[in-house]
User: Which sequence fits this backbone?
């Protein structure tokens, strides 16, 4: 967990073998069409992605990861059923909206409730449980080596070209990995500032090491209004399903027993000191664009003006994708593989 400089905003990411896939909910969405269209707008972000090839990458990853709809026999949190009941009573399931259990790379879920701590039964098909073991089985453990408790501290450069990574193990030993090509995939918070992304990101400032960044974030009125609207909608759904009381995550105790009381949320939330705020899906900071004036990495995932390095993680998203990003990160990695030299 990383806190903003004022300690009022939390960012959660997995720092373990397998990354966030070990401690997330495994929810999988394709990147929405409207988002991809915005990314590729030549007059706008100009990411330069080949849409048919990217869609094919999504299909490959869905098959490889075993992505499937988690119904009808998967044990779900009882609260989900009440939310669904209320949403249907409010007509929130009418087209073009959709309302159903999510797709996820989970196989035969036992409903232990420990997704966010790591499934104790290995039912979540994470990078730790599936992808890394499969890669070692296919290519050999010597070709796919995994170093746990190993922190990448800085990129090594020779004559302006990235030639490897300097690392530090948990016992204090140092390790330098030499490479003809280096791929940086540390996530949005770690990778921003390690390349040149911070000049285009107003909220994250670089530190001396890859993970040493400073996060400054204060939601504006528009951010807070959207948050309040979402809380009101969730509250309406639960009340419609028969809830006796709903309570938003405001610091002020705010029990709400009827729909009229939901208006009190907007009156209570004036700024970020009034409500708990956090994100589990940081994105952007090293945006992709064919133009060096608009982005940090090009359409082949190479930072503009830096040789020997590729960046492939959520930091290259030109904008937020508005849904859980796990599958998009993986599909971009599959897409990038044929373009990394």
Assistant:
């Amino acid at each position: 967990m990383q806190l903003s400089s004022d300690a009022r905003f939390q960012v959660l990411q997995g720092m373990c073998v397998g990354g966030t896939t070990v401690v997330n909910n495994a929810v999988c969405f394709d990147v929405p069409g409207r988002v991809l269209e915005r990314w590729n707008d030549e007059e706008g972000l100009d990411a330069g992605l080949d849409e048919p090839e990217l869609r094919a990458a999504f299909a490959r990853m869905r098959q490889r990861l075993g992505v499937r709809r988690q119904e009808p026999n998967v044990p779900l949190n009882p609260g989900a059923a009440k939310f669904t009941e209320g949403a249907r009573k409010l007509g929130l399931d009418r087209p073009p909206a959709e309302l159903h259990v999510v797709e996820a790379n989970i196989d035969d879920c036992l409903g232990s409730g420990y997704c966010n701590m790591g499934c104790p039964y290995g039912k979540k098909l994470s990078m730790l449980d599936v992808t890394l073991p499969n890669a070692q089985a296919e290519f050999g453990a010597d070709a796919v080596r995994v170093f746990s408790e190993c922190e990448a501290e800085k990129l090594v450069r020779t004559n302006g070209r990235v030639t490897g990574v300097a690392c530090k193990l948990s016992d204090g030993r140092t390790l330098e990995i030499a490479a003809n090509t280096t791929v940086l995939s540390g996530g949005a918070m770690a990778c921003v500032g390690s390349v040149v992304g911070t000049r285009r990101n107003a909220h994250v400032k670089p530190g001396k090491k890859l993970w040493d960044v400073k996060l400054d974030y204060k939601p504006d009125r528009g951010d807070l209004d959207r948050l309040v609207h979402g809380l009101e909608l969730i509250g309406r759904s639960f009340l419609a399903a028969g809830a006796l009381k709903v309570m938003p995550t405001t610091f002020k105790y705010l029990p709400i027993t009827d729909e009229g009381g939901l208006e009190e949320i907007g009156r209570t939330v004036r700024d970020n000191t009034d409500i708990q705020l956090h994100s589990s899906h940081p994105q952007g900071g090293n945006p992709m664009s064919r133009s060096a004036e608009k982005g940090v990495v090009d359409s082949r995932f190479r930072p503009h003006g830096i040789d020997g390095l590729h960046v492939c993680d959520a930091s290259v998203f030109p904008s937020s994708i508005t849904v859980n990003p796990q599958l998009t990160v993986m599909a971009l990695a599959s897409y990038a593989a044929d373009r990394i030299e």
